[in-house]
Write a sequence for this structure.
């Protein structure tokens, strides 16, 4: 049997609406969206996505339970990244007291390994606020469809780079302004990093991005 990449439904909802996977029908997130004036259209065929927005953003939601139980979330994210779609793919990740210890691993996988945009949320309430803000935005332009240079300076990416041992905000900004893509930064040799951050930090950065993943599942 031929193994094809999964596809995402490419239907764009009307302005002010969100197409939502049927599995979310009874969730508190949906009730919050309705309370915020968002109109909901349920759909059984969204594939691996959870939400479709009018400005051609689709969203996958990774819950606290997914992260803590290692409930195949990596495979789900890979399928999501590989899915055929004209939509910009966004990942919302629950960052709670229980899941925060794993957040750096999830961030590295989503942002650096898969090249997707990640936004941490405290739970479904904050996620619904974020989705509502995007839906009711004054412009229909996709706010996450950025040039590579501006995307590198995304606060989430900046925060992730600062988690590398020996890298503070100043060095993180210098690195993200120097390298034209996340993958280029990950693949940089110590000799390329040294003029920017110094010898010791260059070795630490190179080791951080080239060590085996702690969650190699």
């Amino acid at each position: 049997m031929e193994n094809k990449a999964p596809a995402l439904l490419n239907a764009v909802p009307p302005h002010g609406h969100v197409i939502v996977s049927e599995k979310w029908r009874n969730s508190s997130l949906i009730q919050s969206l309705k309370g915020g004036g968002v109109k909901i259209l349920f759909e059984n065929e969204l594939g691996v996505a959870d939400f479709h927005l009018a400005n051609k953003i689709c969203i996958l939601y990774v819950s606290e339970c997914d992260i803590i139980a290692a409930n195949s979330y990596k495979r789900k994210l890979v399928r999501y990244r590989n899915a055929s779609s004209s939509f910009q793919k966004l990942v919302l990740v629950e960052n709670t007291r229980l899941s925060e210890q794993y957040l750096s691993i999830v961030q590295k996988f989503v942002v650096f390994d898969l090249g997707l945009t990640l936004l941490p949320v405290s739970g479904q309430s904050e996620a619904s606020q974020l989705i509502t803000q995007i839906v009711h935005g004054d412009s229909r332009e996709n706010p996450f469809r950025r040039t590579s240079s501006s995307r590198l300076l995304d606060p989430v990416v900046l925060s992730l780079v600062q988690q590398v041992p020996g890298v503070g905000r100043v060095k993180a900004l210098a690195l993200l302004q120097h390298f034209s893509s996340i993958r280029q930064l990950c693949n940089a040799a110590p000799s390329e990093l040294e003029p920017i951050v110094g010898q010791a930090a260059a070795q630490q950065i190179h080791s951080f991005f080239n060590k085996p993943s702690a969650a190699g599942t």
